[in-house]
Amino acid sequence: MKTTGIVRRLDELGRIVIPREYRRLYSINVGDPLEIVAMENGNIVISKLSTESDLAMLGKSACESLSAEFGLTAAVSNLKEFVTGSGGGKSIIVNKGLSSDIVKSIKDRRSAVVSGLGYGFSYMAYAPIFGTSDVFGGIFLLGGIQPDETKLASLKIAGKLIGDSIQKF
User: pTM of the predicted model, to two decimals?
Assistant: First the structure.
């Protein structure tokens, strides 16, 4: 570890400010989870937690189950793009970006069934993936038939279970 010459003082409430340069360099934004670890040698390490690998791993399993059960394409997204999927249309959807309307709906913890949004599918149902405090992404069913309330309820349950599994604190 090299010294940068940046020094911060602890304030009366026990807080320090992470320098802007570091926040920009490591894409640390307001609300991002940070882990604080006290080492045996007395050093304190602050690390940005990444939920991306957990989201993809847990999402893959959920997508496989949903796709097999309903015969539709299932996918999981972070708040930018689809990260994993299962079913016939998986290759069409994975790594495609999400529309701002869908991202806003997911961040607001709303579920929906929509039609004609592209991606090569007639219908899409989605639910947010969230834990106690954070929204991590969304879980989707896509296909040529309109998903019913049972499918939407299944997405909501899967989203909550994945979110609770990812939640670190």
Answer: 0.73
